[in-house]
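Each record in this resource describes a single protein on a pair of labelled lines. With that in mind, the following record should read easily:

===
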Amino acid sequence: MKTYTTKKSDIKRSWHLFNADNQVLGRFASKIAILLQGKNKPYFTNHLDCGDYVVVINSDKVAVTGRKAKNKIYYHHSNYPSGLKSITFEEQLKKDSTKIIARAVKNMLPKNKLRDSRLKRLKVFAQAEHIYQDKFKHAKKS
């Protein structure tokens, strides 16, 4: 008996459409991360990027539970003295809601060399309109 090893030529990518309307951020991001990694496929391997394309619409309407809308704070640093910047979930939602979903998914992916290529296949849009309409003619909507 021989062990089957997935090759790059065996990888088939499909497109998935997600609507973020009233979806809880963490649970929603974990579903997307599984699809981007390709863990839903029978030929998944850790060292190859087997994932699919994911399009997220209505990111302006994503939800969080409890008081996280006011208490959840996103931090980043400019690497200069006193360069710590912070923004709350509510402010970020008004400013650019696509970054909320992209950051949540990024933090749920493994921290390795494949993370950037997986994130390139994540397409997030604030409204229901997107430029990938032609990809979903035959695909099912999630």
Q: What stands out?
A: The chain has a mean pLDDT of 93.
